[in-house]
Every structure is written in C-alpha cells, then in structure tokens.
Amino acid sequence: MQLKLSIIACSVLAASAIHAEDYVSIQYMGYDEDSGRTTIHTPSIEINKDFGADYTLNMTLIHDSVSGASPTYYDASSGASATIPDGPSLRSDIVYGDIPYEDKRTAFAGSLTKRFESRDELTVGYSYSDENDYTSNEVSAEYLHYLDPGKNSSVSLGVSYQSNDVGIYCFLGTSQCDGVSGASGTMVEESLDVVNVQLGYTQILNKTSVLKGSLFMINEDGYLSNPYMRVVRNYNTVPRITEENKPDSRRAYGVTLEYAKSFSEQLSSVISYRFYDDDWDITSHTLDMKLYYSWTDALTTGFDFRAYTQTKAYFFSGRRDYFTDQEYASSDRRVSEFDSYNYAVTFDYKVTETVDVNFGLGYYDQPEYFDAIYYNVGLKYKF
After folding, report:
1. Each residue of 169-203: pLDDT tens digit?
2. Cβ pair 11, 378 in contact under 8 A
3. What is the fold of 7-382?
4. How do the domains of the chain map onto residue ranges?
5. Is the distance from CB of 48 to CB of 22 less than 8 angstroms?
6. Cβ atoms of 164 and 135 closer than 8 Å
C-alpha cells in the first residue's frame, strides 16, 4: 500500500543518536488509529560505530507490518473493493468507506561520516525500502563547513536523490494496465524520482543556546497518484468511479528554523518552525516544541507538542459530484485542508553506564478525520 507512516519510527530512532558514541539501539514502535483503521508494528535495530576520531558509521534496519483499512470511494454492489467498476454505478451504490489492506515493508539506511583535518565533515548515505508494491533507493551527501576556528558557526549543503518504482496491480482496473491482463498478481510499474537540496546555517549564540536555519527545495517527477485512491465523476448525470489523477510533477520550497536553549543542568528546550509551499497550492506551517527535564543523573523526561496546518491542493475535493472532465482529480485526504496536533512524552533511564532503556507514548489528532495512539520501547547498549 506504499507505506507513508514510518516517519514516526524514524523519529524514534533519531532520538537515540543525540550523542556521538558507539552503541546498539533496539526499538519497538506500535501505532493504532481509532476504530482500528490502521495498526502498525515496527521493530528496528540501529548500530553506530566510531572508527577513531575521523570516521563514524551508522546503520539502521526497520521492518513495518501494517494492517487496517484505507478510505476511498467504491461500488457497494460489488463489495468493499478498490477495483474500478466496469461502467457507470448507481448513485445508491456509491460509498465512501474503508477498504481493508495489509502490507509489510523492510528498510535499510546507512551513512558514513568523514572528518577532515579542519574538522569539516562529509557524510554520504544510502537507503533502501521494499514493499509489496513499492521499492525505493536513495543516495545522499552532506558537507558541513565550520566558518571559524572555535566552531561556533557552520554552513552545510545536503543533496539527495531518490529513485522509486511504484507497482500497480492490474486487477484494480487503472489506465496504466490498459491492454494488460488483469489476472491476480499481474502488475505494471511506474517510476518516481525525487531530488532534495538543503542549505543550512548553525550559530552558537552563547554557552546555553544554539540557532539553526535551513532552506530546502524538493522536486518530484513521475507517478505521484495513488493507484488505490478513487474519485467520482459526473455524479449528477452518469456517475462513474474512476482512478484519481494527480499531476506528474511537484516542486516545493521551504524554510526551517530551530532554537535550542539550556536553562539549567536539568532543564532544556528545542523550538522549531517549518514553512512549506508547493506548486499544488499546498502551503503548510509546522510548530514543534520540546522540553527535557533531568530528574536525576539517570532519569530524563521529554515532552513534545507539535501543531501542523496545511491548505488543500487545487485538484482536491471531498465532494462526489465535483469532478466531470477535469484532468487532475483527487479525494486523497493527505492533500486536503486539515490541521493536526501531536502530543508525546518520553522517558529515558540509565540503568548502568552502558545500558539505557527508553519508553515513549504519543497521541496524534486530525480533528476532521481521525486520531491515533502510538508508543515505543527500546534499549540502548553503549560499547
């Protein structure tokens, strides 16, 4: 089903890499939407190893298991199926509801950081992800340059290229399979290329605060539609359920700002803001506020609040009778106008000098659509 929900899992892993050190981190993440619409189980393992003072290797392996139901339009006379009906449908048979699905994903990511005599850093990375109908390969590189001998200021330039193969099952009846047998298991492939460029600047303001900023550009080119998503055309005349059709390119720009402040040896915070804008008319704002408090040398608690808002794409409509002969049409909620809120609390406990355990609990809410609870538990061994 082309999983897009592993961002939470990645953020859990990133939290364990705050300090440069040799370690193995084992994590388990669970995610459950209201009414059981989507359930995710994600075990993962991360290894970080320094080779002297000049090289650091990081590797992560993740496995997602997902089940649930995805909302879209379908013809109830043939059951809850994403298969496009052959011909018009009766208005009374057109339903917007959940269609069950299951999927698994295995992903690997690795990076190698080289530090030069000036202590500038070059990091190169590779990641691979494989699902039943989606395969992704990504290469990346980032160069960090210090602007002063005291390393109080730095600039960075990062570039990544992602090549994706999107599998489309022909039993779904989409136009990509015209002329191809729709037997069970028959699949055609479309491609999607993504280029991401980011320019960053970091300034240490004083002994207790750091300011970071970055500009980014994302260019996507290829198959950007969802082969499981449907729209209804000509609802008031001769209604037909058809595949959605998104543009085959998207270009986005944005900026991120982050301010980290240590108030005392026990209390610190990180506040970040992200602005995003693309040529689909989607504009979004993200505000993230984190607070960390060390109760003892062994126990640290984190609190996180994240607020997100976005405008809708120009080709989105949740109304069945909106589309007639428009080229681009989608009822995908991910490109609709919506707000979301995320609340999380984490606990990190140092059992010994070499063993940490952690636990996190979060609540995600899209008021117009759904809410979800997620959690993670993990162990980190430093060697």
Report:
1. 999 999 998 877 656 678 999 999 999 999 999 99
2. no
3. Porin (2.40.160)
4. 7-382
5. yes
6. yes
